[in-house]
TrEMBL record:
<keyword id="KW-1133">Transmembrane helix</keyword>
<feature type="compositionally biased region" description="Low complexity">
    <location>
        <begin position="73"/>
        <end position="88"/>
    </location>
</feature>
<protein>
    <submittedName>
        <fullName>Uncharacterized protein</fullName>
    </submittedName>
</protein>
<keyword id="KW-0812">Transmembrane</keyword>
<dbReference type="InterPro" id="IPR035992">
    <property type="entry name" value="Ricin_B-like_lectins"/>
</dbReference>
<feature type="transmembrane region" description="Helical">
    <location>
        <begin position="41"/>
        <end position="60"/>
    </location>
</feature>
<feature type="region of interest" description="Disordered">
    <location>
        <begin position="65"/>
        <end position="88"/>
    </location>
</feature>
<keyword id="KW-0472">Membrane</keyword>
Length: 226
């Protein structure tokens, strides 16, 4: 055998030894694989715990809002509203023209006594027990203080009669005396009263759905400032 062949054999054997020396034993390979799997499992478990902790933190942060709402400036007290403004219902878009009544001195949109004129005694329109309304009042109080407000009609000189203390109630006509106090109903003919002028002194007749009101044979009425 020549020297070249011997040297070539030695080199091949040396290369084989080098390759086999770099390969790890099978047991070592399995050990390394198990360690990598354990590391991956531990990492996954840690990620689950971290996500759960973040979720709890967000839930706590979204708890009931206990912040104090801003407090705006307090409303300043205003002047006492008029009788018409104190009614809870909106003012109708169409109302009776009362200009003639103002000219002859009939008091409107304010507290008044509705009195039987020229009889020499006090007989004022009054709300009594059971919401009965008649001309038996003789004392200035909440039962006799009335207000004449424009009615929701195109007929001139037409009003509704409202107790100032009960702004959502209206004096309602009945076929026979006494009258009744009932909740105001816009357009209810029984609650619309035509003020028929009876001269230039502010006297008038009170005409309702069932005719002109008469008290002891008298029909003349007048308003007296409350």
């Amino acid at each position: 055998m020549s020297d070249d062949q011997v040297n070539s054999g030695f080199r091949a054997y040396a290369d084989h030894l080098q390759r086999t020396a770099d390969l790890a034993p099978a047991a070592e390979i399995r050990r390394r694989g198990d360690r990598r799997r354990r590391n991956r499992a531990a990492g996954a478990a840690f990620a689950v715990v971290l996500i759960a902790a973040v979720g709890i933190g967000v839930g706590l942060d979204r708890g009931p809002d206990r912040s104090v709402p801003p407090i705006g400036p307090s409303a300043s007290p205003s002047a006492s509203p008029s009788v018409a403004a104190s009614r809870s219902k909106a003012v109708p878009s169409v109302t009776s023209n009362l200009s003639q009544l103002r000219r002859i001195g009939v008091d409107l949109n304010t507290g008044v006594l509705i009195d039987v004129a020229d009889d020499g005694v006090d007989k004022w329109l009054q709300v009594g027990a059971g919401d009965v309304v008649d001309f038996t009042g003789a004392v200035k109080d909440s039962s006799t203080e009335m207000s004449l407000l424009p009615a929701a009609t195109t007929t001139p000189n037409s009003v509704v009669i409202v107790p100032v203390a009960l702004p959502d109630s209206c004096v309602t006509a009945t076929p026979s005396a006494p009258l009744q106090l009932q909740p105001c109903q816009e357009g209810d003919e029984a609650q619309i009263w035509e003020i028929v002028p009876a001269g230039d002194s502010g006297q008038f007749e009170l005409k309702g759905a069932f005719g002109i009101q008469r008290v002891d044979g008298r029909t003349g009425m007048q308003t007296i400032n409350f």
